[in-house]
Design a protein that fits this description.
heterotrimer, A mainly alpha (300), B alpha/beta (242), C mainly alpha (297), B: 242 residues, alpha/beta, 10 strands, C: 297 residues, mainly alpha, two-stranded antiparallel ribbon, 12 helices
């Protein structure tokens, strides 16, 4: 396994897809935005959960907060600033909640992250309701091509970040934590600091992605921005692609986007059922994911 | 000079007194054998020194500095490494990745990952695990996993290594091999070792000095022949075993 | 305000909610405790039980209190089948051994998506309800419908029965042994496979009965299960994962908190209360309110 080569492959794929706006119409640009969104989100999720084994079931909270920040600062701040602020807000939230949340392990962590995300969703709903906004519309958002390249950049940034972590001391330490946290600590891995760092790093890009998607959707509605299905989907894509592999999120996102474009509009329930079946099949028969199975290069 | 000094160390779990006012010193470059029946507090002592547990009272000094309040990773970076009685390999990582982790994060703290890997490979050679470097740690035999525990502890660059029953469960031939390895390591690296072992003959051969724990109290210490003929040790320990 | 809070009406509502939560959470806890499987499709069994009861009543005119026996058996068989087909291999395979929790979560999530959307496809997403024992009864100044009272009594009785089963029956003892220590249970001769199949059967069966009871007072719909899954997880985390009695106590605690909390604020605050209590509690006492297993460093 050569992480540097994986990085080149993924970046080359993303680079090649930059041609889409010049070849295809708005439909294909839209598909591209969705695909890049999932690559960026799943890559970020894998950075934390794939490496450290702390399975976050609440990553949508960062996405939702990012969307909220961008919508709330609409026409107040320049878009670039509010996107940066979205990433920053997600990171700050991760830092503040990470300290207590990362003290619990295993299923408690899974359920707790889900609970925190839902809690934030309902608090934002209550705050919006109190302010008299059921949902917010934003007008004059950037062109779809601009958003395409923005999301492409975020997917590339998430990939580079995930790569950087994987080949660093941090990545090495996180893998040791995943395998046996106490043994890792006894060998000198600063576990509390590393977990928090990974949590924060895995939060910032989803924050920006949430902001960018708010611009794409041109409205904000808490139930949708904090939809737990988004968290579940990140996990499913990572599992289908392979969660400790830089190429995994790309493969997983590609499968999902293909399926959803084929079926979502005409047969949403059938789409969901197939998604469920896929998940079941992968967990049972290909738990290491497509990348683990197809491109196996490590002696296992 | 003493590398490790334990002063009046006590540990209570609920109503159980696991350790009671244990004091001893370990001189640099020595091999200390720690014996005692199951539940005597040997592993608890290791956990306290390595920072895995906090003592109820007492003090632990390493190189004349207190280890009080330090987390396990901080103790490791000071230069103390331990192994686990029940082996804890990073099962999903390869053998060399296991040891590289120790080289990257232990006292030695290689900045460069390639260098850390080279150092890890060297340690694996010393423990005769070189040909298993790319295997997953979970696939090693028990003997292999015990060696891996030792390899990880060494790769941290620690000056004091606490070995918790690294020979338990091994065949007599494997015990001989491990003894040879430990002696060689002690000589070539100038390590200080504290060794918990139930294989009595091995412990007597290996150690410069023996400490005997019984029900959390230190009941005897001295050179192996002296301890072996100590009447209380004979009664409590060998008497029970016979 | 004070009058509302002091009324028996509210207390009854809290108890009824608590009993439902207790029954739903019991099966989830049993399946987690014995096998470390995180069944996020548990609420969908409530949905399934609701639909079976609804159709038995709508098509055959069968009383929910009678059909719930058939519902329980059907769900128990489904549980045994799911175990045989999907989970037995997973629990046995060494490769997935340490990651059973995460994998089971994903597997059950897949099943949950399938169940919900299949139900929507077959039954249509329209909510369905029926009238049964809906006459209002008066006990002092407390007015309640017969179906609510019946649901509370059945749920409480079933919880009690399961607790007694675990305490006195050989299989119950084996289940508790498995919860405490899997390897040790195997060593003393417990047939792990049989206990696991029984845990699935009991877990699925009780959830479906809870669904049958819920359908007497509320409409059933394909996506009704998820809130029950969430509530059940909150309950068992509060009570301590794998601690069955702790879960029952936590269920009633949550029923009280939710009912009185909403009475004091507004229904908009229901979810904030639920999750707020849960998050705060898990951060303060990660081993659960009544738990003793340490999960913190």
């Amino acid at each position: 396994m050569s992480p540097a080569r994986d990085l080149m492959v993924v970046l080359a794929l993303l680079g090649a897809s930059a041609g889409v706006p010049f070849l295809g119409g708005d439909y294909w640009i839209g598909v591209g935005i969705t695909a890049f969104m999932w690559v960026a989100l799943t890559q970020s999720w894998s950075l934390l959960s794939g490496l450290s084994g702390y399975v976050s079931l609440g990553h949508v909270v960062f996405y939702g907060l990012g969307a909220y920040v961008v919508v709330a600062s609409w026409e107040v701040l320049p878009i670039a600033v509010s996107l940066a602020l979205a990433a920053g807000a997600a990171a700050v939230f991760a830092f503040a909640t990470g300290m207590p949340v990362l003290r619990v392990r295993g299923p408690y962590f899974v359920i707790l992250t889900f609970g925190v995300a839902e809690l934030v969703k309902f608090v934002v709903m209550a705050a919006e309701a109190a302010a008299g906004n059921a949902s917010r519309l934003i007008l004059g958002t950037p062109e779809i091509e601009t958003l395409f390249f923005l999301m492409l950049a975020l997917a590339a940034a998430a990939t580079v970040l995930a790569w950087g972590v994987r080949v660093s001391r941090l990545g090495h330490g996180l893998r040791a934590i995943r395998e046996d946290e106490e043994a890792a600590e006894t060998l000198g891995v600063p576990v509390a600091r590393y977990k928090l760092l990974a949590f924060v790093l895995s939060a910032c890009i989803p924050g920006a992605v949430g902001g960018a998607m708010a611009l794409r959707n041109t409205y904000f509605e808490p139930l949708q921005a904090f939809d737990p299905m988004i968290s579940f989907s990140m996990i499913a894509m990572a599992v289908i692609g392979g969660s400790d592999d830089l190429r995994g999120p790309v493969v997983g996102a590609a499968c999902f986007v293909f399926l959803s474009e084929m079926l979502w509009a005409n047969a949403p329930q059938l789409y969901m059922i197939i998604l469920g079946l896929l998940l079941v099949i992968f967990v049972l028969f290909v738990p290491e994911g497509l990348c683990g199975r197809l491109f196996r290069s490590r002696g296992a | 000079m003493s590398l490790l000094e334990v002063r009046q160390l006590s540990m209570r779990f609920g109503g159980v007194q696991a350790l009671e006012r244990v004091s001893f010193t370990v001189a640099e470059g020595k091999i200390i054998g720690l014996m005692g029946a199951n539940g005597a507090g040997k592993t608890t002592l290791f956990s306290l020194i390595a920072g895995n547990e906090r003592p109820s009272s007492g003090e632990i000094l390493f190189e004349n500095q207190s280890l009080a309040g330090l987390r396990p990773d901080q103790v490791c970076r000071r230069g103390v490494a331990r192994t686990f009685q029940v082996v804890r390999p990073f099962a999903g990582l390869t053998v060399i990745e296991n040891v590289t982790t120790a080289a990257l994060f232990g006292m030695r703290r290689y900045r460069d990952r390639a260098q850390a890997r080279d150092a890890a490979a060297a340690v694996l050679q010393e423990l005769e695990l070189g040909d298993r470097a790319e295997a997953l740690a979970g696939s090693l035999t028990l003997s292999g996993q015990k060696r891996l525990e030792v390899a990880r502890a060494l790769a941290t660059g620690a000056r004091l290594v606490l070995l918790d029953e690294v020979m338990a469960g091994l065949t007599p031939m494997e015990v001989e091999a491990m003894l040879l390895t430990l002696r060689t390591l002690h000589r070539t690296r100038g390590l200080t070792l504290v060794v918990i072992e139930h294989v009595m003959r091995a412990l007597m051969q290996l150690s410069d000095e023996i400490l005997v724990l019984h029900s959390g109290r230190l009941i005897a210490q001295g050179e192996p022949p002296a301890v072996a003929s100590d009447p209380e040790v004979l009664r409590l320990y060998f008497g029970e075993a016979a | 305000m004070i009058e509302t809070l002091a009324s028996g009406q509210l207390l009854f509502a809290a108890l009824a909610l608590g009993a439902t939560y207790a029954l739903v959470a019991l099966g989830l806890n049993l399946v987690y405790g014995t096998m470390r499987l995180l069944n996020v499709a548990h609420g969908d069994l409530v949905m399934l039980g609701g639909y079976l009861t609804y159709w038995a009543f709508a098509l055959g005119g069968i009383s929910p209190l009678v059909s719930l026996l058939g519902t329980a058996v059907a769900a128990a068989l489904l549980g045994a089948l799911a175990y045989r087909l999907l989970f037995r291999a997973m629990l046995g395979a060494r490769r997935t051994g340490p990651r059973v929790e995460a994998n089971s979560l994903l597997l059950f999530f897949g099943l949950s998506i399938i169940a919900q959307n299949l139900a929507a496809l077959v039954f249509s997403p329209t909510p369905r309800g029926y009238e049964y024992l809906s006459d209002v009864l008066h006990f002092g100044n407390v007015a309640l419908t017969g179906n609510r009272l019946a649901a509370l009594l059945v749920a409480a009785a079933l919880c009690l029965a399961v607790v007694l089963f675990l305490r006195w029956h050989t299989m119950g003892l084996a289940m508790r042994a498995l919860i405490e220590h899997r390897e040790a249970a195997a060593v003393v001769g417990v047939d792990i496979d049989r206990v696991q199949i029984a845990s699935f059967a009991v877990g699925f069966g009780t959830a479906a009965v809870a669904g049958a009871l819920v359908s007497m007072t509320e409409q059933v719909s394909p996506f009704m299960g998820f809130p029950f899954t969430v509530a059940a997880f909150v309950v068992i985390v509060m009570g301590g994962l794998g601690r069955l009695e702790g879960g029952i106590a936590a269920a009633f605690a949550l029923g009280l908190i939710e009912t009185y909390g909403v009475a004091l604020t507004s229904t908009n605050w229901r979810s904030i209360l639920l999750y707020g209590t849960f998050v705060a509690l898990l951060l303060a006492r990660p081993q659960g309110l009544f738990g003793r297993r340490a999960v913190m460093r």
